[in-house]
Design brief:
With 397 residues, the protein is an alpha/beta fold. The longest helix is centred in the middle third of the chain and has 17 residues. It is elongated, with a radius of gyration of 27 Å. The chain starts with a helix and ends with a helix. Strand 5 and strand 6 form a beta hairpin. The protein has a six-stranded mixed β-sheet with strand order 6-5-4-7-8-9. A three-stranded antiparallel β-sheet has the order 1-3-2. It has 18 helices and nine strands. The chain folds into three domains: 73 residues; 37 residues, no CATH class; 184 residues, von Willebrand factor, type A domain (Rossmann fold, 3-Layer(aba) Sandwich).
């Protein structure tokens, strides 16, 4: 391999890292070794080899393809495109929606700004009434509109969030000298060691534990960006508390609780990427919930479990069997909370068949599109449910 090609691979890896992709030195060496076995004259072979060695998660493939097309450009094609744009300057093409990750890639391709020498501070009066700090702006920014740097700050903030749930008494009891319940069996056993004399009365108390938490998250194409960000929050929750079960679904249902238990976030996400085959695909909400009710409900829904259902409600099967499975799920848990990023729009209305089929069977309906919405969810989980609030929301819509 020539020195120029090796240097370009290094620069390409740096571009991917600036765009937010986890490309390490081992991936760089593997990419350089893979190119020695490929036809460098074939653009498809080079792209496939670099993608196979540098990308380990399915959701990073689109951003990699955009970065490859921008970095490994043919100079002749670029000049031809520039000439065409010059000749057709009077015509304006129809606007197209930017692909996911385009803003992060544009920031990574931009040249770093030169550092300015610090100037002597000058005293001046600044009106700060209508300004908003960067931290407050980050709390209200939509996850889908964030750039690479903002997304990194949001993930760091998500890892610091904790999810407290109100304690609930279970049937299990523990010995406690100040407990309110008398334990006759333990009292008699203790008296036998004293020659039959009852010198003290054993007491017990009820054990209080937080209820189990079950998360069922949609990873279809319309929910992929939000699911990627929420996984950082769920990774912290899975490592911070017991009795947590996390499932992902698109066209099938996958239990990723064991993968997210790994302390290292990057290792955990790589394990999740290998375990989930249907990322950014279609959505079969009714089928996924039916499989959960049959195979997992009795295992994880007990002792007043709280279920967080994260989906936009857009079902490709036309809500087939969705109402029945939602009703069964609602009856199997103590509290069912639906998190929908579409609620970020003020004019949201339940018009699709899937949303209309799901709404009658949830206890709470909340948005999940920025940091503020997650903090509001944490505050909601720490308080008792309010059934009147959900009924009022249905009446207003």
């Amino acid at each position: 391999m020539t020195g120029t090609l090796a240097l370009n691979i290094v620069h390409f890896a740096r571009l991917l890292r600036r765009a937010g992709l986890p490309v390490g030195p081992a991936d760089l060496l593997a990419a350089a070794d893979a190119l020695t076995h490929l036809d460098l004259g074939s653009r498809n072979q080079v792209r496939t080899g670099l993608r196979a060695t540098m990308i380990h998660r399915h959701e990073h493939a689109d951003l990699f393809n955009q970065a490859f097309a921008q970095f490994w450009r043919d100079p002749d094609v670029v000049r031809a495109n520039a000439a065409i744009e010059f000749l057709s300057a009077g015509r304006s093409p129809p606007p197209e929606k930017a692909p996911p990750g385009a803003r992060r890639l544009a920031e990574a391709m931009a040249k770093p700004r030169a550092r300015k020498e610090p100037e002597a501070p000058q005293q001046q009066d600044v009106d700060m009434v209508m300004t908003v700090s960067d931290s407050e702006r980050l709390q209200k920014m939509d996850f889908e509109a964030m750039g690479a740097e903002e997304l990194s700050d949001a993930k760091a903030a998500l890892r610091k969030l904790s999810l407290p749930l109100d304690l609930r008494q279970v049937r299990r009891r523990r010995p406690d000298p100040t407990g309110s319940h008398f334990d006759l069996r333990a009292t008699i056993r203790a008296s036998l060691r004293q020659g039959g004399e009852i010198l003290s009365i054993a007491r017990t108390r009820r054990v209080a534990k937080p209820p189990p938490l079950v998360v069922i998250c949609d990873i279809s194409g319309s929910m992929a960006r939000y699911a990627q960000v929420l996984l950082h929050f769920l990774h912290g929750v899975a490592n911070d508390r017991d009795r947590v079960a996390i499932f992902l679904f698109g066209t099938r249902l996958t239990n990723i609780t064991r993968q997210l238990r790994h302390r290292d976030a990057e290792v955990a996400f790589q394990l999740v990427a290998h375990a989930v085959p249907d990322w950014s695909g279609g959505t079969r909400i009714g089928e996924a919930l039916g499989l959960f009710n049959r195979q997992w409900a009795r295992r994880v829904l007990g002792q007043g479990a709280v279920v967080l259902l994260v989906t936009d409600g857009l079902d490709r099967d036309g809500a087939a069997g969705l109402s029945e499975n939602m009703e069964r799920l609602h009856k199997s848990c103590a509290r069912l909370i639906w998190l929908n990023p579409l609620l970020r729009w003020d004019g949201f209305a339940p018009k699709s068949q899937g949303i209309r089929a799901m709404l009658p069977h949830v206890d709470d309906f909340r948005p999940v599109h920025n940091l503020d919405s997650l903090r509001a969810l944490i505050a909601t989980l720490s308080t008792a449910p309010n059934p009147r609030a959900m009924e009022k929301w249905r009446l207003t819509r």
